[in-house]
Specification:
The complex is a heterodimer of chains A (about 525) and B (about 170). Chain A folds into two domains: about 1-345, Cytochrome Bc1 Complex, Chain C (Up-down Bundle); about 360-415 and about 420-485, no CATH class. Chain A contains 21 helices and four strands. The longest helix of chain A has about 35 residues, at about 180-210. Chain A is elongated. Chain A has helices at about 1-15, 15-25, 35-60, 65-75, 80-105, 115-135, 145-155, 165-170, 180-210, 225-250, 275-285, 290-310, 325-345, 360-370, 400-405, 410, 430-445, 455-465, 490-500, 500-505, 520-530, and strands at about 25, 225, 470, 475. In chain A, helix 6 (about 115-135) packs antiparallel against helix 12 (about 290-310). Chain B is an alpha+beta fold and about 170 residues long. Chain B contains one helix and eleven strands. Chain B has one helix at about 15-50; strands at about 55-60, 70-80, 85-95, 105, 120, 125, 135, 140-145, 150-155, 155-160, 160-165. In chain B, the strands form three sheets. In chain B, strands 2-3-4-9 form a four-stranded antiparallel beta sheet, with no helix packed on it. Chain B has a four-stranded antiparallel beta sheet with strand order 5-6-7-8, with no helix packed on it. At the A-B interface, helix 1, helix 2, helix 3, helix 4 and helix 5 of A face helix 1, strand 1, strand 2 and strand 3 of B.
């Protein structure tokens, strides 16, 4: 029955002959494991396409919902974190595989006539893959997304002549925001896949048209058919790569920072590892020399790769042969440069807010929102008039959130029926800021630190007093010094003395005397906590 | 157009045990990769469609506000998770105190075509403005086109608080 159906199809399509043409290609003897990378890239592209399709079902390209929709995938959707893991880690796998494939082609001199366009279509596909990576990590709309994209757009602005024009095209509006997210999303899911498909099809067509370049010294003897002898090697490598990717996706959660917060300038952006070399390069060319790092050097690198088939036209294929030596040295310098800068970038961890640092304000927020006397729990409980606390989102802007917390009922119509008593004004402005800070941490899935009574007391005292002037871990005023790492400079006794009466320590100080304003226990809790911040 | 006179499939080539084995292994590995992807991605694509709507007990006011034989319309705010967002439905139910101290909750949606019914406090009956359906205080059809009584929602009383399940 099936055989008859297939015969019927074959008579009308000729698919069997096409399949044979595809599978029976003769490969030069000695075509080995190095030639399996193309198949690995095809597999990884397939995984990216399918996992991206599932993610797009749940993702919402709007600053109000993007973060929550990714959080929904990671937390509530069955197998959602594995799907996002496949997509996020798969992107890294793909960059590695594509670069390895290019290096393999270089070593075999595979770009030489008549394969110049095969090389160029592959190089173009690699650049499109990097474009995917760049546009992809804006989409979760977390801190990393927001600040790394800010850097990208500023880099584009530095381009000569067209810089401003390019930057406003990338941004889509006067500020990084909804308009930016919309166009980067559209590029990521419509434009780039279509462009990549075109280059990939051209690459495969040209590869079949000219045959593969094969090993430098083919083994004597008859050529072997592609199927099943080489496909077996492809299959083994694909299985290993897929199993590694799946294991990684299952056991290591794809990162999601706190929600993007344009007001928090304490966040130090770092790009994904595959752009770290460019990011590191920026540090060596500050100020007016910046275009050297952002345009000149990357431009020379891509130009070298693009012109390679037209410069190195000698038929010699061995990379160490005299005729090819200059290009091999050029490629080695490029590879070593990228690898070295990436290594330096990985080691060079800038000082900034650590991702899992709770600071003090969020601890106070935790106490206010979930502690015994929580006003939030009056409404935010299962079956209550508002969503239970673990279901709340941050899709409103900061202004709304702060207003809601100081006067919950006025700004959330419908949560109170006529016979309910009006709740008292819930909390002051600083309390509200503390709760917002807490929600940001909690929504990022960052576990709270162990809360000893001393830390609780210190947090509540900080949130009502010190926060006005002092910043801890990105939150608080800036009139006084930042206390994020004050433990490195002062011990508990010194801190206690400063809180009690700063003028006795510094002579003259604008910091008020707190000896009579705070209790001894409060001052002790603060001193103990800050001495531990190193 | 490719002319294909006869079938030449790999299976019609002279049998080679090593080759046959390789073909089996290749088929097996690719099937496994495909099935794993189908399980993970299909699971994530289909799972939310298979979850049931959760049932919630919502507070519908105090028992003391309810008098015997006098229906009271109460608006319930039903918040439910809808993907990454929260959807809020407002449902109006009629609370009627029954003789034995219990409370019945009738859904205000007319069973005819889904209009919102309302209480006629003078006639002590529930009327639909659309096509003249009339129900008594127990939700039974008294007149008009409704095919069945008003839907009743489970209720329970905790202390003096009335809870309705939606």
């Amino acid at each position: 029955m099936l055989a008859r159906f297939l015969d019927w199809c074959d008579a009308r399509t000729g698919y069997r002959a096409a399949l044979h043409h595809l599978l029976d290609e003769r490969l030069p003897g000695g075509t080995g494991w190095a030639f399996t990378l193309g198949s690995v890239i095809l597999l990884l592209l397939g995984v990216q396409f399918l996992s991206g399709f599932v993610l797009a079902m749940y993702y919402v390209p709007s600053p109000l919902l993007a973060y929550d929709s990714v959080r929904y995938v990671m937390r509530d959707l069955p197998m959602g974190s594995v799907v996002r893991g496949l997509h996020v880690w798969g992107a890294s796998f793909l960059v590695v595989a594509a670069v390895a494939h290019m290096l393999r082609a270089f070593l075999h001199g595979a770009y030489k006539a008549p394969r110049e366009l095969t090389w160029l279509s592959g190089l173009a596909a690699l650049l499109v893959i990097l474009g995917f990576a760049l546009s992809g990590y804006l989409l979760p709309w977390d801190q990393k997304a927001y600040w790394a994209t800010t850097v990208t757009i500023n880099v584009a602005r530095g381009a000569p002549l067209v810089g401003e024009w390019l930057a406003s095209g990338l941004r889509g509006g006067p500020e990084l925001g909804a308009l930016t997210l919309g166009r980067w999303y559209a590029a990521h899911v419509f434009l780039l896949p279509a462009v990549l498909l075109a280059f990939a099809v051209a690459h495969l067509f040209l590869m079949r048209r000219h045959g593969i370049s094969g090993p430098l010294r083919p083994k004597p003897g008859p050529a072997t058919p592609f199927f099943p002898w080489h496909v077996m090697k492809d299959t083994v490598v694909m299985a290993v790569v897929f199993a590694s990717l799946l294991t990684l996706a299952y056991f290591v959660r794809a990162p999601l920072d706190e929600m993007a917060n344009p007001a928090d300038a304490s966040y130090v952006p770092r790009p994904e590892w595959y752009f770290l070399s460019l990011f590191q390069l920026l540090k060596y060319f500050p100020g007016p020399a910046e275009p050297v790092a952002t345009q000149l050097i990357p431009g020379l690198a891509v130009g070298f790769l693009a012109l390679l088939p037209f410069l190195d036209r000698h038929p010699e294929r061995r990379p160490w042969a005299r005729a090819r030596l200059p290009y091999s040295v050029g490629m080695a310098v490029l590879a070593a440069g990228v690898a070295g800068l990436t290594g330096l970038g990985l080691r060079d961890r800038p000082e900034g807010k650590a991702a899992n640092d709770w600071g003090l304000l969020p601890v106070a927020g935790l106490e206010l929102a979930t502690g015994e006397n929580s006003v939030c729990a009056r409404c935010h409980v299962a079956g209550g008039p508002a969503a239970p606390m673990e279901r709340t989102s941050l899709r409103r802007d900061e202004e709304w959130l702060l207003n809601h917390m100081t006067d919950p009922v006025a700004i959330a119509p419908g949560v109170r029926t006529a016979e309910d008593r009006a709740p008292r004004s819930a909390m002051g402005r600083f309390g509200a800021q503390a709760v917002v800070a807490y929600l940001r941490r909690r929504h990022a899935g960052i576990e709270p630190p162990p809360l000893e009574p001393g830390v609780r007391l210190a947090a509540m005292t900080y949130a009502s007093t010190c926060v006005v002037c002092h910043r801890v871990s990105g939150e608080g005023g800036t009139l006084g010094p930042d206390l994020t790492a004050v433990g490195q400079r002062r011990d508990a006794a010194e801190i206690q003395a400063i809180i009690e009466d700063a003028s006795l320590v510094y002579g003259e100080s604008s910091m008020p005397r707190f000896k009579d304003k705070l209790t001894g226990a409060q001052i002790e809790a603060l001193a103990g906590y800050f001495a531990g911040r190193k | 157009m490719i002319e294909q006179p006869a079938r030449i499939s790999p299976s019609s080539l002279p049998e080679n045990p090593r080759r046959t084995f390789l073909v089996r292994v290749i088929q097996g590995v690719h099937t496994t990769i495909g099935a794993t992807l189908a399980f993970v991605l299909g699971g994530a694509a289909l799972a939310p469609g298979l979850t049931r709507r959760e049932r919630l007990w919502l507070s519908a006011g105090d028992l003391s506000a309810l008098r015997d034989g006098e229906p009271r319309a109460v608006t319930l705010r039903v918040a439910r998770q809808d993907g990454a967002t929260e959807a809020v439905d407002r449902r109006v139910v009629f609370l009627v105190r029954s003789g034995d101290g219990g409370v019945r909750a009738l859904d205000s949606t007319c069973t005819h075509l889904g209009c919102r019914t309302r209480v006629n406090a003078d006639a002590l009956q529930i009327e639909c403005p659309c096509h003249g359906g009339v129900y008594d205080l127990e939700g039974r059809v008294v007149a008009g086109p409704p095919p069945r009584p008003l839907d009743e929602l489970p209720t329970r009383v905790e202390g003096t608080r009335i809870l309705v399940q939606v």
